[in-house]
Amino acid sequence: MQALYAHQANTAEDIVSGEKKLDQAIRNCENLSYYFYSLFPEIKRYLENKFAERKDKNFPTEEDLNPNTKFVDNLVIKQIEESTALNKKFEQLKINWSQQPQLIISLFNSIAELPDYVEYMSKPGNNYYNDKELVLEIIEKVFAESELLHWYFEEKFVHWFDDYNDALLQTYQAITFWKSSMEQVNAGPLFKDEVEDVNFYKKLYRLTLQNDDKYLKIIDENLHNWESERTIETDLILMKMATCELMEFPSIPVKVTINEYIEIAKTYGSEKSGGFINGLIDKIANDLREEGLLNKQGRGLLNQGIK
C-alpha cells in the first residue's frame, strides 16, 4: 500500500524501479528487528557499568558491593550476546548504541518500573522460562510503548516508523520459540516461503498499477452517490489492491482478503474506513461472482466470505 501510494506521488517512476524499492523496504523492516535484539545486551552493559561505579564509591553500601545481578545474568540475553548469527548482523548493520546513552537509560528506567521486573528481581536464581518471560514483557510493555525509541528509528529511516510494530512482533515471535538447549539462537525468518511471498507482493504491486483504470471503474460502479475523487486516497488504494486479489489471486479466499484490508484500513484510514471498505469489497466480490470474474480455485474458496 505504501509503495503504491509513493508511486501515485511520483508517476514518472517506472514499475520495475518501484518493485525494487518495495523489496528493499520489506527487507529493511527485517533489519529493524536486529536493532531490537541488540538493545538487550546494551541495556545489560549499562547496568553492569552502573554496578561498577557504585562499587567504586568512597563509602559503598552493602547493596553497592553486592548488587542483585539477576537481570545481567538473564539467560536469554546471554544467548543474544553469544549468537554468532545475531552478532554478525549487528556488525553488518553497524549497530552502535554508544551515541544514545539517554535512550538506553530511559529504556532501563522504564524496565525497572515494571511490576514484572520487580517481581522477577525478587526471586532467587535464574530460570530460563522466567528469564524469557521477562524479555518478552520488556518487548511488549517497554519497547512497544517507548516514544523515544519510535522517534529514534523514524529519524534513522523514515519507513521504520510504520514498520516498528511489525519488526517488534517478528522479534517477539522468534524469541518465543527459543529454548535453553539452543547453542545458537537466531532471528525468525522474514518469509514463510521466500519465493512464494516475494512473487506475491511483486505481483500484487505490478497488477494493481497495470490495471488501475479497470479496478477504478469497478470501484466507481459500486460507490454509487460517492465519486472516487471524494474517497480518501489510502482507502482507494486499498480497494484497488483488494479488487486485484479477488480477480488475480485464485488461492486467496474472499474472506481473507476482506479481513486483511479491513485491518489495514483501520490502521491507515479514517475511523469509518474499516466499515466502508468491508461493505464495498463484499459488494464487489458479489458482483464479480455473478459476472464469472471472481477468480478462485479450490473447494469453498469461491463462496467463502460472500453473504
If you had to describe this structure to a student in words, what would you say it looks like?
This protein has 307 residues and is mainly alpha-helical. The protein is built from 15 helices and no strands. Helix 2 crosses helix 11. 25% of the residues are buried. The model has no long low-confidence stretch (mean pLDDT 90). The longest helix has 41 residues. 69% of the residues lie in helices and 0% in strands.
Keywords:
mainly alpha, single chain, about 300 residues, about 70% helix, elongated
Order of helices and strands: HHHHHHHHHHHHHHH
Task: Assign an overall shape.
Answer: elongated
Largest sheet, described in full?
Answer: none
| Poorly predicted regions | none
The average pLDDT value, as a whole number, equals 90
Q: What is the overall number of helices?
A: 15
> In percent, how much strand structure appears in the residues?
under 5%
Amino-to-carboxy terminus distance:
27 Å
Rg: 24 Å
Structural class: mainly alpha
